[in-house]
Amino acid sequence: MDERDSIYLDTISLASEYPNRKSMSLSRQTIYHSAEDVQGHAATDANSLFKQSEQYDGAAAGQMAYGKYGQNDEVSARLLILNNKKTVTYSQWKSRTWRRFQDGERTVDFVLAYAADDPHPRNADKRKAFESNLENEGLELEREETQKIHFVKIHAPKKVLCSYCEILKIKMPIKRVPEQDDIIAPEFQLMQSMKSFFGRPFDFVKLDPNLFPDKEYKLTHSYSRNYKYLFDIDSDDFVCQSTSIAVVQFILERQRFSDDDESHNNVGIEKLLSDGVYQASYPLHDGDCSIPGSQRSLLFNEWAAVKKWIKHQPLDNIKEYFGVKIALYFAWLGFYTHMLIPASVVGILCFLYGLITLFSNTVSEDICHPENDIIMCPQCDNQCDYWYLKSTCVYSRISYLFDNNMTVLFACFMSFWAVLYLELWKRYSAKLVHRWGLADFSHQAEHPRPQYLSRLRKVENKKFNVIHRVLEPHVPFWKVKFPVYLMSFSVIFLFICLAVGVVFGITIYRMSLIYSRKMYSDSDNISYQIIFLPATAAVLNLIIITALNYLYDYLAVYLTNLEYRRTQTEYDESLTLKIYLFQFVNYYSSIFYIAYLKGKFVGSPAKYNRIFGFRQEECSPGGCLMELCIQLVIIMVGKQLLNAVLEMLIPFLYKSFNTVRNKMYKTDENDGSVQLISCNQWTNDYKLLAWSPRGLFDDYLEMIIQYGFVTLFVVAFPLAPLFALLNNVFEMRLDAKKFLKYYRRPVPTRVKDIGVWFNIMAILGRIAVVSSAFIIAFSSNFIPRMVYMIRVNANHTDEGYLNHTLAYFNTSDFQIGTAPLNSTFGHVPICRYPEYRNPPWSDAPYKRPVIYWHILAARLAFLVVFQNVVGFVQMLVAWAIPDVPRKLSDRIKREEYLTREIIIDHELQRAATAREREREQSPQLTKNFENVFRLRKSNGDNTANTEL
Fold it and tell me: Is 886 exposed, middle or buried (0-12, 13-18, 19+ CB in 10 A)?
């Protein structure tokens, strides 16, 4: 029996030792046992078990120990296994078998899983053809077919990895050269002292250097066989695990599983997964979250733990484990969260200013004055009664907290904050991308999607790709692409109109509720109308938004699949644009309605402007800003809470369901198959939630929607940055925990930026300036109050401003059927309403007065001045801050120069060696020619002289 065979046994009978135990089946690395094994046996029985190590081999005893006692460190420390007369611990045994092939040497880079009882015979043929093609590519496969789920373990040899690293133009670390220490210019001693002095109070937020030591700086270069001398290929860690995973995934996506050349859908693992040929395809985590010693455990305890919320993120470790794409997402989320701190501080100051000056606000004090007996006109026809203005006292005070003198300054600050945030992020991301070796990565260098190539297999028109130096199928734009794009975005526009229609329907719903007599049967009807009614409408809007999202997501994916998107980046950006356009309208349209349209075209009691016979909604005497705040808080905070719950609850329930389902498998005594037992990494990971092909899309979308709330409507709710900050602090850690604990390990992906999301944020920053200007000009009382203080009041104060904003109405001028039927106020000759209109005794009753046009002109002037001044300052900020720091730019140039010099020196040495070898060979060649000449002349060949 050789070494490999001595490691494994088939069946070990333990009936004499444990009556409840029938047998233990050992199939190389996989051990199966029933739940009875772990009941009623103390750790003290370990000695008797390990006495069998003299009869059986060490690995088999290790399997028994794990199946019997699990991961008990106290037990495993006592259990010594004799394997080929060598003593090893359980930890050593596990490290050799947990993530490796049967030989204990080759690591498992990828795993394919399928059901053992697959009823479709064609699936077996597809698997056989697919796996055969994988082996032809050089991948090494090992099959494990003893459980309910069969596994195919894949290992990529270094030769295959190097070949595909060259194809994919992956940058690899080169050998250390002495000159690389001079690349990083040393800082002045004074600068280092200042950084140390000012950074000392913040040491508590830094990572533990013992757990996360600084990585050694290494130069990188795109791998090529022509430059093998640059790389330390013989090093064991030359190709890291994330690169191995990416290479295997690249091969899996492009292998055929059928000989049918007529079909373009017989390529790639994604098609096999969607057809049910395989149940899962995933790389392996490097250990368990709860067991120390693995990178996964380290990240779970030091990064994903909520109690570590104040600590920096170990971005380099995240990049090594998850890849650049996910690491860049967390880097962006952390940077965005840190940038919310100054915005939150200014927002809190704005709120505190309103709180401190709450009882000095003239408008609120006039409304809440006990002697205020102003009677307001009814809010609806027939059923609504007159009401006292002082009943809105609480509402006016709350509204002042968000609509005060600091509002304009806060709007200016947030406009500058938005552009400063984007510019600083570009600088920060440039440093990260360079450190991770992707500074010169181009999306144009991406290989075509396998689905794209499959659809165009029979296209004869080819186009030369100057980057990859190959011919690729070319699709005519006007004949093929344009009609598909036109149809796709036409459907998108239709659904955007549907979202606007939903907002219109909710508006009609609110208008119709105003006519309910039951709603106003109590004495607190006005507070009910201006607080409860907007709140219920906002909740209804949130429910409809969530429902439409699921329908629209399916439609967007279907339409994007019809388009001819060459690379995965193009595909993702097209899908992102479609979904975000819809989400933008879906989430923001109701808020835009309140900010820009509500209460602006109501009319007067003498003649209301109606929609479907309903009177339009009116703003309170203090404006619509308070209602805008209510709508914003419910949709923004409600969405964040809902997403936080769903993001953690769904993966947890899925994992729990898988665990329960696996435990409910019954043993089939006829074929000997048993339930799925987690006794290695691939069985553990199989129970986790599959990583979605859309990856980080939902996480990015959630944050960009939040960013829109923070920038577009922050004037209405200065505490929005604070709520966003609190949400993101937990969102960052919960996302990390979700990825590490509940999801299978994602395939690392190379990117150099956050993609189209940056462009969306840049556009939102521009729109935010216009939005803030409109909200201040038309939804708040800032401009009318300024005009009143400058042009109307001789004392230039806001005394009497409230009375100035309320128009008079003679109740005898009500239209027929609109006056209150049963009024508790008795006869009311005059009522007031919030509008700028002439009184009934004027020569032009209920017409617009001159002051209305002055205020409108002031509002429009404010729009122009605010947008141009803020926009100009934004341009100055963007121009003054370079995208790439000067030191980093010099460093990149220095690295390129140093690498180029190394290549040139080596090529010169190789050329000199070749010339020397040629000179050494020249005398011998001359001597050979002379010998040939003499031989031919001696044979009488007269042409010898001529040839020589």
Answer: exposed
